[in-house]
Structure formats: C-alpha cells, structure tokens
Amino acid sequence: MTQWQIGIIGFGEVGGIFARALAEHPSVEAVRTWDIRFDTDPAAADAVPVPVHASPGLAAMCDGSMLLISAVTAANTLPAAEAAARVLRPGTLYLDLNSASPATKRQAAQRVVAAGGRYVDAGVMTSVPPHGLGVPMVMSGPDAAAIAEPLRALGMNVKAVSDAVGTASAIKMSRSIMIKGLEALVVESYVNARRYGVEAHMLPTLAETFPGIDWPAVGAYFFSRVARHGKRRAEEMAECARTVAEGGVEPLMAAAVARKMAWIAGLSGDGVFDGLSADDGWPAYADRIIAEIGQTDPSPPATDP
Prior knowledge:
The chain is built from twelve helices and eight strands. By secondary structure, the chain is α/β, with parallel strands linked by helices.
C-alpha cells in the first residue's frame, strides 16, 4: 500500500481541514504544511496541530512530498505555483484547489509541468465545512483521470471531467458567479429592507416566490460567511470576472459582486462584525452595517403639493 507524503501549501480554513483529515488516514505517512504567514509569524507555525507538521520553508516541505495540495487565496494561485515549481521534486503531483480563472490555472500548470511536476486543476464545488475532505470536487488535466481513484482512496470526493487544464476551473467559476452573486444580493437586499424597516413585509414575499427556503436562516448563513471570508470571496470574484472576460463577455455582474465582497471585507477588517456569528441572525449583521454607514433618513423627500 502506498504511504503518502503530502504537503499542503496554505494553512487557512481549507488547508487546515484537509491537512488534519489526511494526517489521520492510514495510508498517509506524513502531512507537512507551509504558509507564507509562517515566515513572519512563528506563532502561526506553532499553532499547527499534531500530527500535522509545520515546515520551516516551502523547499523543505516540497522536498519530502509526493503530493502537493495548493489551498491559498485566489490571488496567490499563480505565485504559489511559481514558488513550488522552483523547489518541487520531478514527478510530484500538484493538486490546485484554488478558485482561479482557466487562464490563471493554465499558467500555473505551465510552471509546474516545466519543473517536472504533474498538474491537476481542481474545482471545489461547495463550502468545505461541513463536508471536510469529502467536499465534492471536479478535476481536469492530463493526469486527472489517473489520479482520481488514488485520491478517492484517501477520502476525497473527486471526479475527473476533462484532460484539459482549465475545465474544472470554468465549472467552478461559473458556479461561483451564481453562489457568490446570491450572497451579495442577499446582503444588499436584506440591509436595504432593514434600513427602510420593511423586512417583515419583504421576507414573506420571498417565501411565497421560493417556497421551501428558510430565508432568515439563509440570510444568517450568508452574512456570517461573507463577513468572515469577504476578502477571499472578493479575490475569487475578481477571478470570476476575469473568466467571463476571457470568454469575450463583459463581466458586469461578476465585477459588481467582487466590489461588494471587497466592501464587506473592509468593514470586517475594521471590526464592524466582531463578536457576531450566524447564531446572532442576519439582522445583527445588518444593524452593524447600518450603524457604520450612518443614520441618514432614508425616507423620500417631501414634494410640494
């Protein structure tokens, strides 16, 4: 039985979940991780839980790994691949989970393949929590079909869809436009309704139009996720806009969603949502936003008779 040596590039939410799960698998001999934060914040490396090993550098991690999983932010997709390509061992499988455009993934693949690595484009098709390692993923690239079964044996829920790098990314980006777009619409709609004091009238109309959806619960989940991961979502939506533009269509919606996510990320960075969670409900988030932007009267101006 193959004993895997695995390296995780990026120890954020996704990298941490994958690393911890893989480290417990009987076919895995060791899981090492490296995050750019480790270079400037030793405490971040010290916080990596056993049995996952925090590597002293990317080169050290790559030197001992036969499988590299890239789980960085969208904006760092290509820089991570370029950095890994300089130090990875020939034959290393590079599984790129990041939310980037097909063109960005193809550039990353060129760097990895030129260094002797095997690049697989992966698209994560829903939120990793609560699925963990079993989150549904599509994969594309020349090695996608060959590696699918070994990855499933590790507990991953993967499906090879094409031998062309960029196909998995195109699927992911198309989905993200819809999902992140819904998040942005819910945030804007709910804050607006709350600001005008009409949410008790507006939300029931959503339930009438789309029965079976718990709109207050959806709002609480969306607000909490956007408040926590707005920066990551903004970067992903910028890649979505790039994907749309690469296809020859003006990315009006994707670009607008990216701006909305960046705005929420700015509020979050300023501490506007500190102490809140989904359990507090969407109105708590909306009230923080309203308080931050000010209490100007939203009523329409009176007109002369």
